[in-house]
Each structure stands twice: as C-alpha cells, then as structure tokens.
Amino acid sequence: MKKILFIAVIFLISAFSAYAQDSTNSDLIKVWGIDEFIENGKKYQDEDMLEIVVDFQADGAYNYWEENDNLDGVWELSDDGNTIYFDKDTEDEMVWEIVSLSADRLEVKCNYGGRKYRYVFKPKVSKGENTDIQENQ
Questions:
Q1: I want to staple 35 with a disulfide (CB 3.0 to 4.6 A). Which of 2, 11, 55, 122 is the partner?
Q2: What CATH number does the domain containing 125 carry?
C-alpha cells in the first residue's frame, strides 16, 4: 500500500512539474526586438517604427525598453498560453494576446488608449550578451 501511494505521489509531482514548465513556454524565454509595428491597421516603416525590446526571463521577471523608457517587473502567461500579463492586477498592468509564437517569431496584439496595436518580434541579442560580444572582439 505504501509503495502504491509513493508511486502515485511521484506521478502527481511529475505531472505538475510538466504542467508548470508548459505554462511558461520556453520559446518565449528570450530577448525579443520589434520587427513590425502596426497601429490601428497602419504598418509603420522601419524608419518610423518605435524601438521596442522585451526580455522575458525564466524566473518571471521582464525588462521592457521602448525608445527612452525602461520598465521592469513581473510577467506571467495565462493557463491556456494565449495571453501575457505584465504586472498583473496592478495599475501598471499590460495585457498582450499572443497571435503566434515560435522560437523565431512572436506576434502579439493589444489595446491601449482606444488604439489597437499589433507587434511582431524577432529574437535579439540581449544588452548583456551584446556587451560580452563587443568585449571579446
């Protein structure tokens, strides 16, 4: 009886661990740089596009750079993996709906101040890694 209970507990722990890993989607954990910026259906050209970089860290922290603004805080992925919450349940909360996500592309949409936005991101070398690369050259 104890052996069966022990096996059942190990199975439940394994199942929960697998679920917890899936809920953070490893494709998302990296530094992303903006590739396309669409506001209310208008796609901006490279020279008119805002510079946006988002660093999703495995521990749930994030860094967000937009032009000269830098934000950091806590992010989480919804249970269904379709929504990213930044600083959930705070006055600074941002919500992004994931349109598509793969290892080399993240597309999200969101609404702010009555405007609809769609961002497409590509993986980017983080600032820390970039500094290391420059120092080694």
A1: 122
A2: 2.40.128.540
